[in-house]
């Protein structure tokens, strides 16, 4: 009788452990969606060098794209789908958040700054880059500081950090700026290049990359004043702890293993397609700190 009770108890315990294990492995949120649809969808930018842009074959490439692809490689293992399909959807600053929220994309692999305001709508993975917003101008414009922009036309990307930075600057310094809007970096630089605007604000590394690829790289310079610190992070849907923990662990492993040390130079210190321009931007102390001590702190 006693042996039978022990056997029954053992069966009950085993059953409970089996349920617990099944619950622990149960996919939720984004991982469940990806598993059920057999597809993971990445949001990319058309012209945000060297993070997320199209090559000559019209395929998305860049530092942020490569990080997302590393995450996708591990998603395939996690959901047990080695042939998982990857799709790409073009986004701009104004569409990246709604397309993430409504499920059109699963990862926003662009140049999005992790801000406290944006955290109200979407989630962010660990910081993957730290930039500083600056204004680009033509050397012949006679503009050497932000104060010299008074009364001038400045182009910003709609929905980007530079938009609210410029509006705040205009209000606080009473500069009387004529603020022009562009849908993306390509359109914004064209407005600077053709003289519609005398200054274009974006993060320093993106400006340097765009200038390096332009027809006259020596014709432009960046104003010395840094307007902000910009921690870039891959965007995900809010309130999806399973996916965030999973994807953060992928990035944390890239950082701790040293793999990021070979990936970074590929995009920032070596020739990059399509014109083999070199940005020549060593890893900053701020990024080294973010890699040594991973965090998802917004600004």
From TrEMBL:
<dbReference type="GO" id="GO:0005576">
    <property type="term" value="C:extracellular region"/>
</dbReference>
<dbReference type="InterPro" id="IPR051455">
    <property type="entry name" value="Bact_solute-bind_prot3"/>
</dbReference>
<keyword id="KW-0732">Signal</keyword>
<dbReference type="Pfam" id="PF00497">
    <property type="entry name" value="SBP_bac_3"/>
</dbReference>
<comment type="similarity">
    <text>Belongs to the bacterial solute-binding protein 3 family.</text>
</comment>
<dbReference type="GO" id="GO:0006865">
    <property type="term" value="P:amino acid transport"/>
</dbReference>
<feature type="signal peptide">
    <location>
        <begin position="1"/>
        <end position="24"/>
    </location>
</feature>
<feature type="domain" description="Solute-binding protein family 3/N-terminal">
    <location>
        <begin position="39"/>
        <end position="271"/>
    </location>
</feature>
<dbReference type="InterPro" id="IPR001638">
    <property type="entry name" value="Solute-binding_3/MltF_N"/>
</dbReference>
<keyword id="KW-0813">Transport</keyword>
<protein>
    <submittedName>
        <fullName>Transporter substrate-binding domain-containing protein</fullName>
    </submittedName>
</protein>
<dbReference type="GO" id="GO:0030288">
    <property type="term" value="C:outer membrane-bounded periplasmic space"/>
</dbReference>
């Amino acid at each position: 009788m006693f042996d039978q009770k022990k056997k029954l108890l053992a069966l009950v315990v085993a059953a409970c452990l089996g349920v617990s294990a099944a619950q622990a492995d149960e996919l939720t949120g984004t991982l469940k969606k990806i598993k059920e649809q057999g597809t993971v969808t990445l949001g990319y930018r058309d012209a945000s060098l060297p993070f997320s842009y199209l090559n000559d074959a019209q395929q998305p490439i860049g530092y942020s794209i490569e990080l997302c692809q590393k995450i996708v490689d591990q998603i395939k293992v996690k959901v047990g789908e080695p042939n998982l399909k990857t799709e790409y959807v073009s986004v701009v600053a104004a569409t990246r958040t709604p397309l993430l929220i409504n499920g059109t994309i699963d990862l926003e692999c662009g140049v999005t700054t992790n801000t406290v305001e944006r955290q109200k709508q979407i989630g962010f993975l660990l910081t993957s880059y730290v930039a500083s917003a600056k204004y680009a101008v033509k050397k012949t414009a006679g503009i050497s500081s932000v104060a010299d922009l008074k009364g001038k036309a400045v182009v910003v990307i709609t929905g980007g950090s530079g938009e609210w930075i410029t509006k705040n600057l205009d209000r606080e310094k009473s500069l009387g700026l004529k603020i022009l809007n562009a849908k993306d970096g390509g359109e914004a630089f064209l407005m600077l290049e053709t003289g519609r605007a005398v200054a274009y604000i974006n993060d320093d590394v993106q400006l340097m990359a765009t200038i390096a690829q332009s027809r006259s790289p020596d014709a432009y310079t960046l104003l010395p004043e840094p307007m902000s610190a910009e921690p870039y992070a891959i965007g995900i849907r809010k309130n999806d702890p399973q996916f965030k923990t999973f994807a953060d662990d992928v990035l944390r492993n890239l950082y701790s293993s040293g793999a990021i040390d070979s990936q970074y130079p590929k995009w920032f210190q070596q020739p990059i397609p399509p014109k083999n321009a070199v940005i020549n931007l060593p890893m900053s102390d701020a990024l080294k700190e973010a890699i040594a001590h991973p965090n998802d702190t917004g600004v």
